[in-house]
Each structure stands twice: as structure tokens, then as C-alpha cells.
Amino acid sequence: MPExxxxxxxxxxxxxxxxxxxxxxxxxxxxKLLGRTPAQAIxxxxxxxxxxxxxxHGKYLFxxxxxxxxxxxxxxxxxxxxxxxxxxxxxxxxAMVVDFENGRHLAYNSRRKLGLIELTDSPRQFxxxxxxxxxxxxxxxxxxxxxxxxxxxxIKGLLMNQGRIAGLGNVYTDEVLFxxxxxxxxxxxxxxxxxxxxxxxxxxxVLAKAIEARVDVHRLPRSYLLPNRGRDGRCPRCxxxxxxxxxxxxxTYYCPVHQRRKA
DNA sequence: AGGACGCCCTGTTCGC
DNA sequence: TGCGAACAGGGCGTCC
Length: 263
Fold this sequence. Notes:
The chain has a 4-stranded antiparallel sheet with strand order 1-6-7-5, with helices on one face. The chain has a 4-stranded antiparallel sheet with strand order 2-3-4-8, with helices on both faces. It has a two-stranded parallel sheet with strand order 9-10. It has 263 residues and is of the alpha+beta class. The chain has helices at 4-17, 39-46, 123-130, 141-148, 155-160, 170-180, 193-215, and strands spanning 23-28, 51-57, 60-65, 70-74, 80-85, 94-100, 104-109, 116-120, 134-135, 165-166, 243-247, 250-254.
């Protein structure tokens, strides 16, 4: 479920540990993740250079290759990174392993092979080509309000639409709506200005808290929806059994008491 | 435009 | 208890 907070955590991992180390060999084991990029292009781009910096847009991580453009990573729903020395963790599912000449390694790991490994000359152009909206953490209040203007659909659909706001997936969309007290199927047009402002504040709060939790304790407060998701889950505030429904094919959890449906 | 749905993918969970 | 079906969900494409 790598969404914005998870990808931001991975970005920080790379930034903290994996920069400025000469890259030796890179092995690609799951070519499927490369899309149209030939594995040879990956080897060539990485060999002999080093990671020089990182950037993130929505759920995409960009790693700058000194003098050779950028490596682009998307983690699908099960992707993650391991930075390690010595024994390779979870070997079976490592789709790509970068060997640094100092004996350390960075592995892109994915059980379900839904994701993307690619090269680009420019993150900005990549973002444009993919048609991604503004990064969810970079959106200002005014811009957020304008994104909600004249929209016809349900609020959950809009928040999950990467072309509008990039970074929120199923899980954190539910989390944000829970904190804002907004029912996931609320038509955007039925939301008052106060609703929209509250939603914006909750979006910022939840993302910031989630990043903090992932980096430090790997755990969100118990008052969050996320630790309580699931068929037998209950609202952390009132203990009401969570409601469960499907919104555009994604399982949605919400509190029927705190997130009342608006007509 | 928006949304329902299917596909990809494979480990896990569900339900009979 | 066991086993096949359904589920999980990010992104994309198709269809209405």
C-alpha cells in the first residue's frame, strides 16, 4: 500500500543511506516492472555512477543518477526498498538489486510485481507525461479549494484521482475522510466551504502524522482509522462497527456515526 | 466527466 | 479441517 507517506519514508531512506556510493553491478530480475525500458539501459545508466539526490511526486520516487538523469520508482501496492549489507533479505521477491562498490546494496522488493522501474531525463517531464496532479503535500489551501470547484463526483473518487491530487491511495483517503468527518460518497457539490477547509486541514495533518509515524515508531496513534481497518474493525472514537462499502472498486471503511451521509 | 468494471499480480483470507 | 474462491489495491484501459 505504498502511498505518499510510505514513499516519502522510502525517499528519506535512500537520501539518508544510499547517496554518494559508487554503483557496481545492478541485476534486474523482474523485467516486467521495467515496462518498455530495456534492462540494458538500467545497467548502463547506473554502472559507475552514484545516487546524487532524491525527489518525490505523489507516489513516485525519483533518484538522481549523477550525470545520467533519474531513476524512477513506483511501488504498486507491495513494493518496498531494502538497504543492507551482507545477507540479502527476502531474496525471492527482489525485482532489482543495486550493488554498491562499498559492499552495500539497495533492493527493490515487490511481491505482486505491480509497480514501475524506469529512467527519465526530467522528473517534471515525467510527471507531465503521466498526467499527475499536484503533489498532495505541496497543494496549498487555495489550490485545494479550486480543485474541488465544479466537480460532480464523490469526494473519495476525487481524492484518489492521481490526475487531480497525487499521493493519496485507498487507505489514506479513508483516513483523511474519517478525520474530517466526511462520508466517502459525499458529492463534492454537497460540501460546504467549511467542510472543504476542514478536509484540507485533515489532509495535511494526516499526511504529516503518517510520515512522522513511519519514520519514527512505524505506528500511527490508535485514534487513527488505519490500525482499525478490517471487517471486524470499530471506530476508535465511539467503538461503532465500521461501515464497509465499495467505491469505484476499492474497499472503503468509515465510521457510520462520525461520517454521516449527506443527502 | 465520472464511474463501474476488468486486468495485472500473487500471498492471504474467506467461506462453504 | 481443507481447499478453491474471493480479496487486497495502484494504475490503466474500456465502456457507458
